[in-house]
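Journal club side-thread
Mid-discussion, someone asked how the predicted structure for our own chain would compare to the paper's figures. Pasting it here so we can look after the session.
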Amino acid sequence: MNFVNKVKNTAVQPGRVEAFWLGQAGFLFKTAEGKQMVVDPYFSDCVFRMNPQEGYGFKRIMPPVCSAEELDIDVLLISHEHNDHFDVDAIRELVKPKTQVYTNCVVADAMAEMGFHPDQIHRMERGRSITLGECSILPVDCDHGDLAPEALGFVLDFGFVRIYYAGDTGWTPDRLEVPLEIRPEVAILPINGAYGNLDAVDAATYAGMLKCRICIPCHFWTFPLHKGDPQQLIGSMEEKAPDCRLVMLSQGESCTIGG
């Protein structure tokens, strides 16, 4: 079964949400009502195209789970402007007439310049929550340094479970106070340890401090330069987050959250 059919044929029960890993930092969440919320999908090879000085450092080494135009997205969240999160080569295929995009000011400005209809683009501010049917979304701070000072994380509150998508962030606890106070049940954390991001040990430490029940790693095995060692995370969780269950997904695989 191909990925698109897998998503379509996955029945989600009330009180649950299905989380599919798209690879890199991208996730698709399917709700009981059948809505599809996608965060930071990367489907093209635009990072390689736009950074020829890095040689094969940013060559895509894992294929996308499907083509961008095949997805039927209701809500698209984009955490920041780096092209493995804001895929400029795929964005026109990702955004359908019904798709509503929620993002930071930098991406919103870029999409306006690209000619997207302003009614589809919504600027998000840290600390200002929005409610979209089954889910409320709270943009939270993250620390991506000077590389992307307006970068966001997201806390998705489905009522029965809160899923924290950390985005690209380093281990800077004073910048992460809101998620640490919220203590979400699920944390999706980068482990690549490059460009200021958490490495695997940082992610395990953070999961332990969040006291989350489930930790899902991402942001690894897409580019040679991005590194990321899932085995190091496996080895660190017992010490750093003994009460947290590690869920290690392969590209296109999903897990049921809630219930």
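Post-session note: The mean pLDDT is 96.
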